[in-house]
């Protein structure tokens, strides 16, 4: 019987904890810091600060003293900061990559280096360290009609450090906006096709693929508006051709793991490949690697995943998945998740708005940006919560999710109404 600590405070961590709580091996569940919308039976630990930064050493010492046997880390920032190294120094198993291995997400330029060295298909790109250098590249590279460029921050930006540009003026504006914040950018050829989020459990050399998912990064319907951390998702993704999964495994995940091991930074944890797939040409490219579960993809993968999630986490943390299958089992049902965000998101957001859930509301909700004010649940961030729908097909899952969302209200609430629409 195990005590498990989940690090993070968002909807992704809520979904991870929700799934771990279903394991017969988990007797005590702790969230650090969690949020006010999570199950009251789960403990919540605040993370202390030292010099304005999270004190993971104190958290690890407390976890050791409290008998925590497994830590599951959700967000990218703690992973890049080396939280796994801190817990492992205390002898605690941790499901996530080391600080050095997590740089495959924290540094877009490192990720590109790994892709090129491993022969993984990706877009043409340039890494730049000044506005002048960026403008020279934008001017010198021919603009293909109907094409475009993607300007990416070379660092963690909560999913908002990417701007997709269809014109020279838009690309130049993106460079001007991002450089003061990040100092280093990756300019990338814009690819065309359908985006797919594909994740895999990895133990340093082996991988086991989860089902793919699709997320919606833009704020508004029909993929309009600014990029966000994600406004919704669904899984499985229809139209995946036979054999594509085997190609992704052999041409993306295994080469990436081999290259990371070769560099002396083996990757143990969840590796996320953001893909672009062109069905017309049967080609795919890797847009990015993330070093953790996606958000909001986790919220549709956890409800569909079969078996004991805890056992996968332990195997990954130990660096030995040899006793587990090469593919993670999933149900045939469809899951769809719709995010409700505060007014102003992804910019400056309204907070302190009372969250109302109609009495007797039927649905599953994963909370993120909420806190208690007196006895009221109020908004405390951009993405407030999400509603989950599960059904025998995409239409039923969508109907269930939006019916559940209709039971929720807070002032300024915004959400997309087209999650799950197939164009």
Task: Characterise the protein shown here.
- By secondary structure, this protein is α+β, with helices and mostly antiparallel strands.
- Helices cover 28% and strands 29% of the residues.
- It has helices at residues 11-20, 56-65, 76-80, 83-89, 103-106, 108-118, 131-140, 168-182, 244-262, 298-301, 309-318, 394-405, and strands at residues 2-8, 26-33, 43-44, 49-50, 53-54, 70-73, 93-95, 125-128, 149-153, 162-165, 185-189, 194-203, 207-209, 214-215, 218-220, 224-227, 232-235, 268-278, 283-290, 334-341, 356-357, 364-367, 370-373, 376-379, 383-391, 408-409.
- The strands form eight sheets. It has a five-stranded parallel β-sheet with strand order 3-2-1-6-7, sandwiched between helices.
List its salient traits.
4 domains, Dna Ligase, domain 1, 12 helices, Rossmann fold, five-stranded antiparallel sheet, 26 strands, alpha+beta, 423 residues, D-amino Acid Aminotransferase, Chain A, domain 1
Short description, anyone?
The protein is built from twelve helices and 26 strands. It has 423 residues and is an alpha+beta fold.
Topology:
Blueprint: E1 2-8, H1 11-20, E2 26-33, E3 43-44, E4 49-50, E5 53-54, H2 56-65, E6 70-73, H3 76-80, H4 83-89, E7 93-95, H5 103-106, H6 108-118, E8 125-128, H7 131-140, E9 149-153, E10 162-165, H8 168-182, E11 185-189, E12 194-203, E13 207-209, E14 214-215, E15 218-220, E16 224-227, E17 232-235, H9 244-262, E18 268-278, E19 283-290, H10 298-301, H11 309-318, E20 334-341, E21 356-357, E22 364-367, E23 370-373, E24 376-379, E25 383-391, H12 394-405, E26 408-409
Helix pairs in contact: 6-9, 7-8
